Every structure is written in structure tokens, then in C-alpha cells.
């Protein structure tokens, strides 16, 4: 098998993932009114765990119910502790070998004002109207993150991903655009303080070296003042801050970094490369390499955005046919020391069992994601999310939604 290195185990912190596949966090807006897992959530994750990937990152769990991006988002507050424990217990029965991480998040300015309160660190055009966060507000939010990490630990999760990407609160504080004069704004030492204090507090709260900590990071958000830009009013890329962030997280106990880019409410195609112009996947490879060159050998670098590569039937140019696929690039990037593990987002909705099918060479059975982005349309419309190409229930649901609500005006989360 030419891609056999994708099936080599790897250590993450004190635990071992059986292979190099990671299921990226994919929120599907199908929790109950309390933010607990429903049957739909169980079914989704059961399939993912049967799929045998090395790591599954459980989608963005909200740490409070004041500031929500999705109406039916999973949450992680004291009221969710028991249901989450039952969920993890069940998932560990399905597959005890896969590492199960919880992604913890707070929406900030991406909260939907139709049903939730928007928070802002400095109003960004297009996202106005939020409550300007004070230092006390940030302390409260940090307390909620720490409580959430303890709940994750007690539920039996193997670790947490402290989300610092895609324009959510973690991103908003880190961005150069946050040049407001306050404890968490202005100079870089202030903006990185939230992330550094957070990971230190989580490490103190869960004093177990086996509990894995890490973060998903947008290396460059791709708009003026976004993460990875050279200043508050320029989009020119400067990776010195994201790389310093990564070093600081590593020094404070992070054992993995999940690379990402973009802010899907603003620069969607940067986060999830567009099937018509998939070339941004190379930008992701470049970020992976920069991270890999920055961290210690034992810190695991996970690369995002591999879905667009598919089985090689993609729009990348100037390549031989057999040098275009997800398995080709995943395997090569690991061999070339660019990345340690590869994450699939959209592909995991199209086929949650990709890893096991590849391992057993059941190529005819694989549903390759077409990157049509119809699953994202559900999320944008605040509906339950699934693959509208391969899962009949969602094909029909999308048809019905479009009939009732018309075509989507803008493809942004
Ligand atoms: C429907 C949907 C839900 C997503 N939910 C999350 C999420 O909960 N947390 C997160 O960090 N990224 C989320 N993403 C982004 C993906 O995890 C991933 O970074 C992105 O899709 C690029 O990977 P891909 O090209 O393999 O799809 C979501 C994307 C989609 C399409
Ligand atoms: S709806 Fe389209 S983009 Fe989403 S998982 Fe299915 S094939 Fe992939």
C-alpha cells in the first residue's frame, strides 16, 4: 500500500493514536434544547468511531448558553455533565482505541443575535451590535472554559481542543484588529494573554498528565487585521504571532496543534478550499510546515483541509493523475516532515468510515466528498447538518428547505 504510513500509530501526549487520520470538528446543529447529544448525535459519532480514525474531535461545544452561534449547538456546562459522560462511555464501547477530544468554544461576535447575545472585543464591520467585553466578562468566560475542561475530563474525554480559530472569540482576542486599549488588547503580549492564561488554568484544573491539551489555530484569517496579519489595518501575512502563540501553548502543555486558516464568516474558501479553485490547499501545507518547523518533535501537528483532494479527481493543475489524491498528499506530507496527522472535515460527513475503507482497500465503497458545500448550507440556515449528496434524508431535507426558503443568498457561516 503506497500510503501505508497513514496507518502508523503516533503518540499524542501520553496516549497513542492508532493511525494518522483525524476527524476534524464538524458542528451539525442537532443537539436537544439543553445542548445535550440526541440520537442523531449518537448515530453520527458511532459511525465516526466505527470508521477507525486515530482521533475524533467532537464538534464545537459551547461553554455557556448566553453567546451561541447555532440554535441547537452541543454545549458543555454543568447541566450537560451526565449526558456527556453517557455519550463518551458509549463511544468508548464502540471503539476504545480512537482518541476522543472535545472542542471547546465561545462564539463572541459570531453569536446569532436572533436568538443569542453577541459579544465583541472591538466591533468588526458586518458584526456590529455586540456587547463590548470587559475584563470581568473575559474572566467569567475563562472560568466557564475551565469548568468545561473539567466536565470533559470527568466525562472521560481524552483531552480538549481550546478553539483559537475561524473568527470565534479566541480568534477575536488574538487578532491584531483587537487594538483596543485593555488587558487583552493592543500589543501582542496582551492579545496572547487570554490563550496563555486559559491553557495554564486548564492544566491546573485538570492535573492529569494523560489529559491531552491543544488548539486549533487559524494561521492567517485573510482579511485586514485578522489572525496572522501584520497589523490592525493590513492583510499582509506575518506568521510571527501565530508561531509565537504555538510555542507558548506548547510550553504550557499543548501536545497537539491543529492547523487551520481563514474565518468562514468572512473568508470561507480559505478555511475549506473551494472545489473549483482548490489551490489554497497548498497554503495549508505551507502553514503545516511552518508549525512543524517551530514545535518540538513530540508535539503533534495536525493539518486541515485535506477533503478537497479526494481520490485525485480534483481541479489541481500541473500534476500527474496519481499525484493528486488525499492519500498521496497525506502520505507525502508525513514522509516529508510537513505534518504528523491529516484531518478531514467535509469528507467525514460524506463518509465517516474513510479510514477503515482505505485500510482494507475497499475503494469501491468510498463516498468521496464532492466539496459541493451543501452541508454548510444547512449550518448557515440553522438547520440540522448532514451530507446532502450521499445521505438521502439530507438530500430530501435540502430540497424541502430550498423550496420553503428560496436559494441561499450568501455562502458564509
Ligand atoms: C458543516 C461544517 C461544520 C463545521 N464545524 C466546525 C466546528 O465545529 N469546529 C471547527 O473548528 N471547524 C468546523 N468546521 C470546519 C472544519 O472542521 C474544517 O476546518 C474545514 O471544513 C476544512 O476541512 P475540509 O476541507 O476537510 O472540510 C466545519 C465545517 C463545516 C462544513
Ligand atoms: S454535502 Fe457536499 S461538501 Fe458536504 S459532505 Fe456531502 S459531498 Fe461533501
Descriptive key words:
413 residues, 35% helix, binds flavin mononucleotide, 14 strands, eight-stranded parallel beta barrel, two-stranded antiparallel sheet, binds iron/sulfur cluster, globular, 14 helices, alpha/beta
Short description:
This protein has helices at about 40-50, 80-95, 135-155, 170-175, 190, 195-205, 240-250, 270, 280-295, 325-335, 345-350, 355-360, 375-380, 390-405; strands at about 10, 15, 20-25, 55-60, 100-105, 120, 130, 160, 210-220, 230, 235, 255-260, 300-305, 340-345. It has about 425 residues and is an alpha/beta fold.
Structural class estimated from helices and strands: alpha/beta
Q: Work out the radius of gyration.
A: 20 Å
Bound molecules: flavin mononucleotide, iron/sulfur cluster
CATH class of the largest domain: Alpha Beta
Mean of pLDDT: 97
SS strand fraction:
5-15%
Strand order of the largest sheet: 3-4-5-8-9-12-13-14
| CATH fold label of the largest domain | TIM Barrel
The beta-strand count equals: 14
Number of helices: 14
Mind telling me which CATH architecture of the largest domain this is?
Answer: Alpha-Beta Barrel
What is the CATH superfamily label of the largest domain? Aldolase class I
Terminus-to-terminus distance:
39 Å
**Could you give the order of the helices and strands?**
EEEHEHEEEHEHHHEEEHEHHEHEHHHH
Coarse morphology: globular
